[in-house]
Amino acid sequence: MSGAVENIYRASACNWIAQRQPELWARTAKYVMLPTYLNYKITGVLADCAANMIGHMPFDYKRRRWQGPSALTRCVYNIPQEKLCELTPSGQVIGRVTRAFAADSGVPEGLPLIATGSDKGCETLGLSVVQPHKAAISLGTTATVQLALERYVEPQPFMPAYPAVPNHLYNPEIELYRGFWLVSWFLREFCAKDLAQAKELGCPPEELLDRYIADIPPGCGGLLLQPYWTPGITTPAARGAIVGLTDHHTRYHLYRAILEGIGFELYHSLKHMEKRAGIRVEEIYVGGGGARSNVACQILSDLFGLPVKRTQTHEVSAVGAAMAAFLAQGVFHDYDEAIRAMVHEGDVFRPDPAGHKIYAQLYSDVYARLYPRLEPLYRRISQITKRSDAL
Fold first, then answer.
1. Which fold has domain 1-115?
2. Do domains 1-115 and 118-315+344-391 have the same CATH topology?
3. 118-315+344-391 — its CATH code?
4. What are the residue ranges spanned by the domains of the chain?
5. Do the beta carbons of residue 89 and residue 115 sit within 8 Å?
6. pLDDT in tens, the chain (391 residues)
7. How many Cβ atoms are within 10 Å of 292's Cβ, its own excluded?
8. 39-77 burial by CB neighbour count: b if 16+ within 10 A, else e?
9. Which one of 33, 47, 96, 138 is separated from 90 by 20 to 30 angstroms, measured CA to CA?
C-alpha cells in the first residue's frame, strides 16, 4: 500500500499548506471542505454531516466521528483537532438561513438547512438502494458502484466504507475515476464529423453514436478496453489499455468498447465487494448522465446478467437529498415510506442470455487477467519515461 498512501498524502491539500505555507497554516482557525464552508455562509454555523465527510480528512468512517490523535492513519492528513468543524447526523438541522444570505440569494430568512450527505450517497438513496440485494451504479464523470449495508465492510483492503445518508447504513464504494469522462474524451479526440452531424440533427452526440453502435455485437469483434486512463487509489501504476485492434474495427467499435470497458470494471468491482461482504446482488439501479443511454444500460444488463433499472429521473442525487429533508420535517416516518412515495421504477433492461455468455467468457478469460499481467509493464513504462524526462 506504500504507493497508494504516498499518492493520498501528496493529494491532500492540508499537507501542502502545512509544508509550503506554514505561516498561513498557523493562522488557519478552521480547515473545512467547500460544502462545509457553504453551510457556514448560509447559516453562520460551521458544521457538516458525517455522511458528507468524503475526502482527505482525518475521519473515522466506521464510528462517524473525527479520528483520535493516535489513530493509525491520522498521520496521512494530521489536521489538528481544533481546526476541524462540528459534525451532525444526517436529517438534522444544521442552522437557518441568515438575513445576510437571504438578501444576497433571495432564499427566505429562517429557512432550515438540513444535513443530508455526499452526492453519491444521496444518489444511492435516491435510487432506492437501501438493502444488500441492490447495487447503485452511477454513470457520471466518475463511475461508481455502491452498496448499502448495515455492517461496516471495507470495499477494498484499507479503503473505508462511507457513512450512508440513513444513519444506520454504510455505503461501500469503488470508483472508476475516468468513467463517462472517457466518452467526452472520445468525442473530443475522434468525433469531429459526428459532433457536426449531431449539431445539424439537433440531438446530443451520444445519442447519435448509440445509433451506430447498437448493432455491434457484444465483445466488439474482439476489441477490449481497460478504462484506467487515471490510476486508482489501490492501483497507482495503472494505465489504460486497448487490446485486440484489427483492420475491421472503426471508431464506433472503439466507442462501444469504452462502454463495455466501463461495464467490465464496474462488474469486477461489484464481484469484489460481494465477496468481501458475503452477499449477492440481484438488482442494479443506475443514475447519472450516462444512464440516459439505452445502449449503455443494456450493455450493463447483459454484462452483469441482472436486471438494470432506471427510475423516473437520472438526477437521483436530488431525490435522495430531498428524502432526508422530508424525514427531518416529519413528512415521512422512515426511508422506506419516502422511497415508496418518491422513487418510481422506469425502464427495466433485462439481460440477453447469449450476450451475457460472451461477456462472462471475456471477463473471466481475458479482462480479469489484463491488469495483473500488464502491471509490471506499466511500472517499467513509468521508470523509463521518468528517466527520459530527467534527461
1. Nucleotidyltransferase; domain 5 (3.30.420)
2. yes
3. 3.30.420.40
4. 1-115, 118-315+344-391
5. yes
6. 777 778 788 888 999 999 999 999 999 999 999 999 999 999 999 999 999 998 889 999 999 999 998 888 888 888 999 999 999 999 999 999 999 999 999 999 999 999 999 999 999 999 999 999 999 999 999 999 999 999 999 998 888 999 999 999 999 999 998 899 999 999 999 999 999 999 999 999 999 999 999 999 999 999 999 999 988 777 888 999 999 999 999 999 999 999 999 999 999 999 999 999 999 999 999 999 999 999 999 999 999 999 999 999 988 999 999 999 999 999 999 999 999 999 999 999 999 999 999 999 999 999 999 999 999 999 999 889 886 665 5
7. 16
8. bbebbebbbbbbbbbbebbbbbbeebebbeeeeeeeebb
9. 138
Residue 9 in grid coordinates: 498524502
